[in-house]
Amino acid sequence: MGIIKLKNIRTYSYHGCLIEEGKIGSDYTVNLEVKTDLRKSSITDDLKDTVDYVLLNSIVVEEMAIRSDLLEHVAHRILTRIFEEIPEISRIIVAVSKLNPPIGGDVEAVTIELEEYRS
């Protein structure tokens, strides 16, 4: 088995419960970790034998472009879509961070993290 990690995928998105957040937008980062079998691809050196991280990145970017009130909802959509499109993946951890959130304090980021296993 093995792990593929995509770190600090940056997007400008429009998530949040406040009306202003949907109009103004904000900077976000997403960290993604997936568990899959990397033994075959480590020997064959062939993309068809592994999980294409270009596809993983594009799923994250596409789901981040769909407005949601809650970061949890965005993260759940990312998890669901990866499991639907990439059957080789057995576990996913996704962390979605809103940078400089409008919460009335000096906070660098708010992050939610979800972990799911294929059932």
UniProtKB/TrEMBL annotation:
EC code: 4.1.2.25
GO BP of this protein: folic acid biosynthetic process; tetrahydrofolate biosynthetic process
Start and end residues of each Dihydroneopterin aldolase/epimerase domain: 4-116
InterPro entries the record matches: Dihydroneopterin_aldolase, FolB_dom, GTP-CH-I_C/QueF
Alphabetical keyword list: Folate biosynthesis, Lyase
Pfam family, one: FolB
Pathways involved: Cofactor biosynthesis; tetrahydrofolate biosynthesis; 2-amino-4-hydroxy-6-hydroxymethyl-7,8-dihydropteridine diphosphate from 7,8-dihydroneopterin triphosphate: step 3/4
GO cellular component annotations of the record: cytoplasm
GO molecular function list: dihydroneopterin aldolase activity
Catalytic reaction(s) noted: 7,8-dihydroneopterin = 6-hydroxymethyl-7,8-dihydropterin + glycolaldehyde
Purpose of the protein: Catalyzes the conversion of 7,8-dihydroneopterin to 6-hydroxymethyl-7,8-dihydropterin.
Record-stated family: Belongs to the DHNA family.
The name this protein goes by in its record: 7,8-dihydroneopterin aldolase
Species of origin: Flavobacterium sandaracinum
Gene symbol of the encoding locus: folB
